[in-house]
Each structure stands twice: as structure tokens, then as C-alpha cells.
Amino acid sequence: MSRLSARLIFTIFVHGIFSQFGDIMTACFNLLNVPIKQFFHKNMLNKFFKEETFSHNQSTTRGLVLFSYYSVCAASMFFGLMLGFAVLGNLMDHIGRKETGLTTMVVNSGGVIFVLLITPFCTPILLGSEDLWFIVPCSCIILATLHLSIAVFFPQSPKQLYIQKHDEDGTRKALEFYLGENCNTKKILNEYEAEKSLESDTFLSLLDVLRDSIYRSTFFLVLICSFVPVFSAVNIKSQYLSSILIGYGLTQAEHYSLCWMFAVFGCVFGQIAVNMGLLILSPLMISEICEHKTTAVVSQFTQVVPIMFAVVEVFMFPNLQEIFGASLFFFTPVAV
């Protein structure tokens, strides 16, 4: 493997550090889900209903305004999810194949490490209080701003510039930026040209992928790997962890030290499992074994379908827990 340039390493670690605001926000809302709802609701009530008496029309109007805040928050979340699904496949087409594995490993590892570091600060004695709960979301906004402010100066993907925009000069400059001035630009451009000659003008649809035996086998292989997070109880843990622990007697009041030991033990070994590739194997496989013209449809379908299953799994968990009890968690590893 050729020696990576300092600028390429810097670029990877900028994305690996400052792009983790999404993972931190997910962990924040999972750990502070109940108190944040209470804090936010209390703040809204104090703002709109702090007076003791209102007329009926005033109460109705203020109630509609308060309801609109919740509606805007929910709509923004679902709009962001749909937008992410729409652009994910196209983004996969623009990422080069040479350092995709390293980039994915650094970015995903950075995410789980940041979550591991931020988790203790979400406890009620630190930042999970009524006065300080907003610090973690504000920190995520700062990270997102820094990420955008720095990444905007990075050149576009050389592969995208050459294959899609036909900008050979821009491709050379991007290659020199990421790989150094001593990189073998001619050899890389020949590889891009060879791949460009194999590409069709239009990307394949899902039916086209399923008709071809090679594309079909890689598609189902990636799809099976994408179901690993769904059946690994990660989604159930993120929503029901507190209630599960309390339900089994692990309350903060009586077993606070035990909670800390159990949490540290679980976090460390859980993040080791993530870093070993169980939960990030799917994007690596998309970049390595799927043809370039199939990455869009494969990445989109293998993201949407597992998420639908995850939603159903989280929704049905209380009923399944009543039927199967703790034995439910023995079914998920078998499914994996």
C-alpha cells in the first residue's frame, strides 16, 4: 500500500472528527429522551402558559402555537430522513474506491468513540439536568458548523470530476491535493478511463440488478449484511434500554455504582464489536464488491428496507417482550 499523503490523512480525520454530530445527537436523544421531552415541554408551557388565567380563545391559540412547534420538529426529522435516503445512493457514486475502506473505518470508528466519550456526560449529575441539557445539542451544532466550514475547501472527488464532469484538469489538481504531487496521476487517470468506458449512461434499476446473476448475488449479500444492525437489538436498546434496566431492578437510586460498571462494560465491548465491522460492513461491501452502476440502487434499497424492519421491531417490542420475556434476545443473534 502506498504511503498516504498528509493532506489525505488530514481530510479523513476532519470528516472522522467533525462529522460525528449525527451520532452524538442520536446518542443524546436516546439517553436523554425522557428528560428532554419533559424539559422542552416545561419550557414551552412556561413560555405560552405562564399566566394563571386565559380566555378560551387565548388558550386555544397558544395551544395551536405550542402544537406547531412539535409538528415542525417531527416534520424536520422525517424530511431529513427522506432527504438522506434520496442522496445516499448518489453520494456512493461520487466516492472513490481506493481509500473508501480506510475512510469508512475512520468515520465510523470516530462516531462510536465520540458516542462512548459523550455518554457519561448525559447522566443527570452532569449534562442531563434541566439547566444543562441543551449543551450537548449545541455542541453538535458547533461540530456541524466546523465540519461544513472546513470541508467546503476540500476539492471534489477526483473520480467524480473525471467520470461525471469530464474535468481532467480539476481531476489532476484534486489528485495532487489528496495524494501528493508525486502521485502517479497518469496511472490513476487510466484506471478512471477504463472504468468510465465500462459505465453506461444510465444507472441500473432494481429489476435490472435482480435479472443479472452476478449483480443479484452481490445485492442479496449486501442486503443480508445490512440486516445485522436490525437483528442485533441496537434499535431496541436505543429506545428501551432505561426501561429494561429499571424493569430488571437496576435502578439509579439503589444500584448507581452497578449501573456505571455495567454501562462502562457494555459500552466498551459494544463499541469493540462495532469497530470490528459488524455494523459497518454493509457500506464497505457496497464500495468493494458492487459495480459502480449498481451502487445507487443497492445502497438505497439496503438502507430503506432494514430501517422499515427496525421500525416494526421497535414498535412491536413491548408486545413481544410480554410474550417471550428475556428469551426474545436469544432470537435476534440466531436471526443474524
Automatic annotation (TrEMBL):
<dbReference type="Pfam" id="PF00083">
    <property type="entry name" value="Sugar_tr"/>
</dbReference>
<protein>
    <submittedName>
        <fullName>MFS domain-containing protein</fullName>
    </submittedName>
</protein>
<dbReference type="InterPro" id="IPR045263">
    <property type="entry name" value="GLUT"/>
</dbReference>
<keyword id="KW-1133">Transmembrane helix</keyword>
<dbReference type="GO" id="GO:0015149">
    <property type="term" value="F:hexose transmembrane transporter activity"/>
</dbReference>
<feature type="transmembrane region" description="Helical">
    <location>
        <begin position="219"/>
        <end position="240"/>
    </location>
</feature>
<dbReference type="InterPro" id="IPR005828">
    <property type="entry name" value="MFS_sugar_transport-like"/>
</dbReference>
<keyword id="KW-0732">Signal</keyword>
<feature type="transmembrane region" description="Helical">
    <location>
        <begin position="67"/>
        <end position="89"/>
    </location>
</feature>
<dbReference type="InterPro" id="IPR036259">
    <property type="entry name" value="MFS_trans_sf"/>
</dbReference>
<feature type="transmembrane region" description="Helical">
    <location>
        <begin position="12"/>
        <end position="32"/>
    </location>
</feature>
<keyword id="KW-0472">Membrane</keyword>
<feature type="transmembrane region" description="Helical">
    <location>
        <begin position="101"/>
        <end position="126"/>
    </location>
</feature>
<feature type="signal peptide">
    <location>
        <begin position="1"/>
        <end position="19"/>
    </location>
</feature>
<keyword id="KW-0812">Transmembrane</keyword>
<feature type="transmembrane region" description="Helical">
    <location>
        <begin position="260"/>
        <end position="281"/>
    </location>
</feature>
<feature type="transmembrane region" description="Helical">
    <location>
        <begin position="132"/>
        <end position="154"/>
    </location>
</feature>
<dbReference type="GO" id="GO:0016020">
    <property type="term" value="C:membrane"/>
</dbReference>
